[in-house]
Amino acid sequence: MAKHLKPSHVDAIVDVIVGWPRDKLTWEAIIVEAAKVIGFRPSRQTLNAHAAIKEAYTAKKKGLVVHGPRTSMPSSLSVAAQRIARLQAENDKLAGINKNLLEQFAKWQYNAYKHGMKEHQLNQDLPEIDRERTED
């Protein structure tokens, strides 16, 4: 009889899926890795019955299809640390840009309300551009 998964087991298996280092992601491979983490071998049906595991699997599978196989491991910890620092700086920059855009949107939203603009006016299509060429 299959064992039931505790919430801690589900979290551990989701972590295994999220951190999956290989190109090929299959239920069988996840079962093997999950057995190492939780101490017993769950069935595919047991894993698929938990929404968190199923969502992590689907998201990872889509990510692998869209982005291709992961890059190889860095050659040293210093290279990895530099890479992490660069990605963190890029993440901070993008978070700042996102914050500024949200503030800009809030201003536009208030001004549209203040000047009596309706939602259908804001959602109107842009005018088409006439790109006809003149003959020389």
How would you describe the overall organization of this protein?
The chain is mostly helical and 136 residues long. It has 2 domains: 7-67, no CATH class; 77-120. 65% of the residues lie in helices and 0% in strands. The chain has helices at 7-18, 27-38, 44-48, 51-67, 77-114, 119-122. α1 (7-18) crosses α2. The longest helix has 38 residues, at 77-114. The termini are far apart. The mean pLDDT is 86.
Features of the shown structure:
mainly alpha, 65% helix, single chain, 136 residues, 2 domains, 0% strand, elongated
Produce the secondary structure layout.
Layout: H1 7-18, H2 27-38, H3 44-48, H4 51-67, H5 77-114, H6 119-122
Shape: elongated
Q: What is Rg?
A: 25 Å
Mean pLDDT: 86
User: Can you tell me the residue ranges where pLDDT is under 50 for at least 5 consecutive residues?
Assistant: none
Number of strand segments? 0
Terminus-to-terminus distance: 82 Å
How many individual helices?
6
- State which percent range the strand residues make up: under 5%
- Strand-pairing-aware structural class: mainly alpha
- Residues in helices, as a percent range: 55-70%
How many domain modules?
A: 2
- Topology as a string of helices (H) and strands (E): HHHHHH
Main beta-sheet strand count, sense and barrel state = none
